[in-house]
Amino acid sequence: MVKLDQHTVEQYTQLVIYALNGQNKGKFRELFLELHPTDQVELFSGFDEVQKALVVEYLTPEEFAEIFQGMESEDQKEVVRELEDGYASEMLSNMYTDDLVSFLGELEEQEAKDIIEQLDIEDAKEINEILNYEPDSAGSIMTTEYISICTSDTASKVMERLREQEPEAETIYYLYVVNQVEELVGVLSLRDLLFARLDQKIEDIMSTRIVSVNVKTDQEEVAKLIKKYDFLAIPVVKDDGKLVGIVTVDDVMDIIEEEVAEDFGEITATKGSSDVNISSFQAAKMRAPWILILMFLGLVTAGIIGQFEDTLATIVLLAAFIPMIMGSAGNTGTQALAVMVRSIAIGQVNRSTVRQLIRREFGTGIILGIICAIALLVIIPVAYFTYDAKFMLAFIVAFSLLCTLSIATMIGAIIPILINKLKIDPAVASGPFITTLNDIIGLLIYFYIATMFLEYL
Q1: Which residue of 129, 208, 413, 417 has the fewest C-beta atoms within 10 A of its own C-beta?
Q2: DSSP states of 246-269
Q3: Those residues with Cβ within 8 angstroms of residue 160's Cβ, 6 or more apart along the chain or in another chain
Q4: In this predicted structure, which of 80-89, 339-348, 399-408 has the lowest mean pLDDT?
Q5: What does the alpha-carbon distance between residue 125 and residue 402 come to, in Å, rounded to a whole number?
Q6: In sequence order, what are the residues at sequence separation of 6 or more whose Cβ sits closer than 8 angstroms to the Cβ of residue 452?
Q7: How far apart are CA 401 and CA 407, in angstroms?
Q8: Widest Cα–Cα separation across the chain
Q9: Looking at the domain 280-456, which fold is it?
């Protein structure tokens, strides 16, 4: 593998392109195949149509599978449609199962079926079985390219088998031990195998303290387990204990990225519409339901202001502080929401910590409210020096903000916990929803306090 630093990468790239443009197949293969697969994907993506056709011509389907696996789904769709059926079929057969399943999941149902029909019978059966698992489950993201060994095998026999099967396996750092009926009974690290005596049996050196997941386990739970134990892979078993696949750490990284993007979409009420490949109409269609809901909630805000029009008519200056009250309530509520959703996502929220977290957020809200209130008690009398009851006005606004921020943080903290209890993704307690709800509560508090002290203004 060539090591490229900042000074040689551009020069090396030019050599690869020069060999390709000169149709020097031997030199191109020598240079290109020395690159890391990630660099190969990057280079291939920058080629024009003629150059891409030459790359496909010069590489075997097995070699091209390495590049194809690293592409974005939209690029994969475009490339696979340009390939000859025979080449495409062989190339897809050389992909790791989880990567192939992920690609097929991005296609239209009929298109995916057509591709599966071109695969070997055994491969097609395997792919169909994985596709039948629930989306976002361990079964749907696992790969079947792993190495399993028997308890009665010797260390020397396993080493010999590794030399034969290593190119086919996605990882060999863990070897999974099964019994005669394919039940998972142990695990052996490559390190333990290397230090074992050649005649030593696997059952004598394997570990029986196995951490595994069921095919039905949610992918987020799989990611948490791999992170917790610092695994490179985790075995996947059926209800009867039979080993059927593994989930590797690279898949977990994709899962985390996917979950973060999903949660961000939920919190900002833009779920699905952040994809750069969708049209303006599709993005608007996805966002419209939230916008309409929030618009009707906004009418509630307008109704509250209407209920206190006598208060506003008496002291018009009260209206000047409405945006500040609403904005501060929305901001603190969204901050509390973000903190709580993250705590839930990383497993910090449980029966013993939930009260502590809520109490902490409430205390945070009170402290923020006191800080803002003190600032307003100083700023408002100075800014509105011409107003007779300026100190009472400052007190009303400051006290309202103190109460509002305290309650807003509580709402931002409690709602995602309640939603999580209902087995719903807490991220659906989106920022815009929390913001609007806190706007309504903030206005009620503000006008109620202002009405109480109206006679002093």
Answers
A1: 208
A2: EEEHHHHHHHHHHHHHHHHHHHTT
A3: none
A4: 339-348
A5: 63
A6: none
A7: 10
A8: 96
A9: Tetracycline Repressor; domain 2 (1.10.357)
Tokens coding 4: 């490229």
Name the CATH superfamily housing domain 9-136: MgtE N-terminal domain-like (1.25.60.10)
pLDDT, one tens digit per residue, over 193-210 is 989 999 999 999 999 999
Neighbours of 426 (CB within 10 A): 24
Rounded to an integer, what is the distance from CA 407 to the centroid of its chain? 30
Q: What is the 3-state secondary structure (H, E, C) of 120-160?
A: CHHHHHHHHHHHCCCCCEHHHHCECCCCEEECCCEHHHHHH
Q: Which residues partner with 223 through β-bridges?
A: none
Q: Residue 72, SS3? A: coil
How far apart, in whole angstroms, are the C-alpha atoms of residue 423 and residue 417? 10
Q: For residue 237, is pLDDT > 90?
A: yes
pLDDT > 80? residue 282:
no
Domain ranges for the chain: 9-136, 148-263, 280-456
pLDDT at 213 over 60: yes
Cα–Cα distances in Å, from 164 out to 62, 67, 195, 342? 17, 24, 20, 45
Which pLDDT score, from 0 to 100, does residue 331 have?
85
pTM: predicted TM-score of the whole model, two decimal places: 0.59
How far is it, in rounded angstroms, from Cα 321 to Cα 203?
74
Instruction: Check: CB of residue 401 under 8 Å from CB of residue 372.
Output: yes
Q: Beta-carbon neighbour count of residue 150 at 10 Å?
A: 15
Residue in the block written with tokens 């992170």: 227
Whether the pLDDT of residue 330 is over 70: the answer is yes
pLDDT, one tens digit per residue, over 338-391 is 888 777 766 677 777 888 888 888 899 899 989 988 988 888 777 665 555 577
Bridge partner list, 447: none
Architecture, CATH, for domain 148-263: Roll (3.10)
Q: How far apart are the first and last CA of the chain?
A: 79
184, 203, 393, 400, 439 from 389: Cα distances, Å: 78, 86, 6, 17, 26
Return d(Cα 398, Cα 379) in angstroms, integer: 10
| SS3 label, residue 171 | coil
Amino acid at 277: N
Q: What is the pLDDT of residues 92-119, one digit of tens each?
A: 988 888 889 888 888 888 888 888 888 8
